[in-house]
Amino acid sequence: MLHAVDFYCFSPTGGTRKAGMLLAGAMAETVNEIDLAKGNASAPLSDLAIVAVPVFGGRIPSLVNQKLAQLQGKGKKAVTAAVYGVRAFEDALLELNDVMQSAGFEVIASAALVAQHSIVPEVGAGRPDAADAAEIRQFARRVLTAMERGSSPDVIVPGNRPYKAAMKVPASPLSLPACVGCGRCASACPSGAVTLTGEGVVTDAGKCMMCMACTAACPVQARILPPPLQSGMTEKLGALRDVRRENQFFGLNQPE
Length: 256
Ligand SMILES: Cc1cc2nc3c(=O)[nH]c(=O)nc-3n(C[C@H](O)[C@H](O)[C@H](O)COP(=O)(O)O)c2cc1C
Known about the structure:
Strand content: 15-25%
CATH class of the largest domain: Alpha Beta
Bound molecules: flavin mononucleotide
Order of helices and strands: EHEEHEHEHEHEEHEHE
CATH topology of the largest domain: Rossmann fold
Structural class: alpha/beta
Radius of gyration: 18 Å
Strand order of the largest sheet: 2-1-3-4-5-10
Shape: globular
CATH superfamily of the largest domain: Flavodoxin domain
Helix content: 25-40%
């Protein structure tokens, strides 16, 4: 176990944090958590950074890319995790590693971890679960062993450059008449797209990345995707309901 790690995390609905925390908590006694949804990412304090980011349309959210790009790794080590909802992670892990390396970190291992789909929760329901937790802990042990041995990293992850085109946001969540005007959706929005006004909740579609943070934060379930979009997504991803996608781990080429 390390004494401390920095845990950089962006988790609009909690799945990425859950998966990333399993990793960070298995590696160090103290986890210094930096929420990438809030303000600028603060400089790393420890020798190792764990970075967990959700996959949006096969990429990492551009807001996260911008915040990570401002860090100064100064040769510190990083373990990266792209967390996705069963469909595919495509270029996201490669993009995450590229931005971390450009920011001066040495990426020593990576993972593509499965979590519940934040738009269609029947897909990947309950993940990460106990079996995922055991795999992630084993991965953490292998990373720690590799660090002790001082083994050189060889982290090759799937993905293509140029990356696939960034996802076009099809619509923004809306507030139903049941909205109680508590403003939690506005506070939860990482891109400042949601405002509580005298007339109710207003959403700036140009800023919204459809991350679902506002829907998850609503205490009365009055914040939803437009129903035709929700049912279209549920239908499109429905076939993945019974798929158990495996977590994938990269960069530890030495056996335990
Ligand atoms: C806008 C958006 C796009 C997504 N795109 C993908 C995708 O390309 N592939 C995939 O498997 N899951 C995709 N997901 C599911 C998320 O990657 C997954 O649920 C992740 O755990 C969400 O993180 P969070 O729970 O921390 O918010 C997407 C979710 C959202 C909201």
